[in-house]
Amino acid sequence: MARIFITGSSDGLGKMAAGLLINRGHRVVLHAKNEQRAADALKGNPKAEGVLTADLSSIEQTVELAEKLNELGHFDAIIHNAAVGYREPRKITTVDGLPHLFAINSLAPYILTASIEKPQRLIYVSSGLHRDGDSSLADILWEKRPWNGFQAYADSKLHNVLLAFTIADKWKDVHSNALEPGWVATKMGGSGAPDSLEQAPLTQVWLASANDPEALRSGGYFYHKNPAVFHPDAKNRDTQELFLQKCAQISGVRI
User: Fold this and answer.
1) What is the pLDDT of residue 88?
2) Which of 44, 47, 51 minimizes the C-alpha distance to 13?
3) Which of 9, 67, 124, 139 is buried deepest, with most CB atoms within 10 A?
4) Which positions are catalytic?
């Protein structure tokens, strides 16, 4: 059985994926933003191995989370699930002076990927909206553009796919993939979302634990366990390297 860590697993799809994996006999460590959410996470999945707290909008706390995970020992898979949605009405800045949405959705997965001991599998939860992301990466911190929450979210989900694909290229001993769970009725998706909530966590569970050949690919992008269309620039190595360079410069952490 596998040992798996899931960011943002106190509610939503992270909680659902954790429950499915635990019920299949896997060891799962949860993550929550703070102690209250940690209590909620354990209440939702009481058979989890444990829960770690960190506010992923903070570079310092994200680095500390990676250190805590390394102290716990090896993980077979890590699901980068934590994210905030596109409804932020203005550019909210973090303790590091970064856009809140970028810090959680884009930078935190980068920092954790760079800092945690390599697992066998890395799974990045993206969105179909990543296909609307800005691949120029020209104003990644929204210093010049007028704030647009939808565009900022789409950009961040493209960043997740870029990270998944570049890690697949660089780390041949790791299965690194991205996926879209669909537009579903979570707190982020809203009550009117049309896709199947029941189906939404299945692809990340499959990529984290299944041993069939399709799940053991690397550099794939999936929707409901099937290959899906991704942004045409997501495989562009210059774009991938530019994203890594910008994240390294912003965070001080290098892959």
Assistant:
1) 86
2) 44
3) 9
4) 153, 157
